[in-house]
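[step 3/7] fold_predict: job queued, chain A
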Amino acid sequence: MLKTQFANRLKNFSFADSRMASNRFIKDVKWPITKNLTTLVLIIVSSIFLVYFLAPADLEPSARHALFILITAAALWITESIPPFAVSFLVIGLSVFFLESRDALDITQDWEKYVNTWSSPVIWILLGGFMLAIGAQITKFDRKFSNFVIGKFGTKPYRLLLGIMLTTGFLSMFISNTATTAMMLTIILPFAKQYGKSEPIVKAMMLGIAASATLGGIGTVIGSSPNAIALGILQAAGYDFSFVDWMIPGVPTAFILIFLSWYILKKLYKTDIKNLELVESEEDTSAELDDRNTTENRVIVVATFLITIGLWMTSTIHMIPVAVVSLIPIVVFTAVGIIQAEEIRLIPWDTLILVAGGLALGIAITDSGLADYMVGLIPAFENPLLIILLMAFITSIASNVMSNTAAASILIPIGAILVPTGYVLLMVVTLGFAASTALLLPISTPPNALVFSSGYLKQIDFRILGMVITVVSPLFILLMLWFLI
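[step 4/7] structure written:
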């Protein structure tokens, strides 16, 4: 039962980063159709009233249309009256019909730039990362790797806890944090069942996995969707910010926050256990999947992983675009049969659509003139760092109560226009990092929801660690980026 519990959950889960997706781990969610339709209509009507009747008269028509799209998208992403990925389609569609013209429903000649966000290099980078992750899961390289690393930390409870958290954080830099969490849970569930809910170290391990899976995403561009949105906005603004440029501040920031989380859990959850050992637990798989779970295929996955990551990190030397390098795992894994046609559905397409919508919203805010207008309304602050810090706090808090991809889609484009040109890079990357610090509630992220659904945690168990990370991380992230960028 333990071996298949989370595998079955993942099988029917879309990997969307949203409260709706998180809730599916905790309970079956039935859509109250009337309630959601009512919410949808109220949001659209309210947005029309605010923008077209109460907005300043000197706001240009295209900027007014962009403001309508921004308010509508933000409200829909917060309430999730329709799925988050559907909001992205709505953003792209409204941008095509409403922007860059005085009249609504007058399609602009430049409409393709909004639709083409779906084929942005950032989307291809994420797609390559997802294919690497699926290959690692199918061949169980991720499980073999995690068991090997954890085994090196010995049997002392808090050393083992640190090993679990560091392994989870590292894997989450390259593999979906939801899949990583589910895999790590299957490793510790036999131990948790043996000692029960009252054992403090069990709670520490559960919270440690959730925290590390979320914070680990800070480390790389493919670690979380907000990172991809931030990179896309930087590229659109003309910044040459590479895969390695992100990792230089991202990896140390992620691991230091993971160490901080480990220290907090160590102080909060005291155990009398002197030595413990985790028993390797394998998930049940079909005979067809077992045929691909071979040493030969794992060697192919490791080699492809190293080549792809290596080329991503050295793109400034060989000048092969990072998006083109992302084709390597797609071609190799399908050519050798590690990933077959039916596994393509495992790609979190809804996350890719969310990112495309976020990029389209950023283009809409900038190209419509709304960004310039908002800058003119905002009082000038003498210290841009204070603005960045404030926006980082807002992003961290917002990510706790809504999809962090949606939060990044709304706040990063706004943040980029609040500071002088010389601080745009610092603002955008800071907000990208801050969007991956949501630990306060069970529904803040799918990793939180997964560990909560195991039955070993209560909602109150998330509060102390979540509050500390929410308060400390924005300032720490800003300081790290100030010194490293």
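[step 5/7] annotate
The two ends are 48 Å apart (CA to CA).
Residues 1-7, 9-15, 284-288 have pLDDT under 50 and may be disordered.
exit 0
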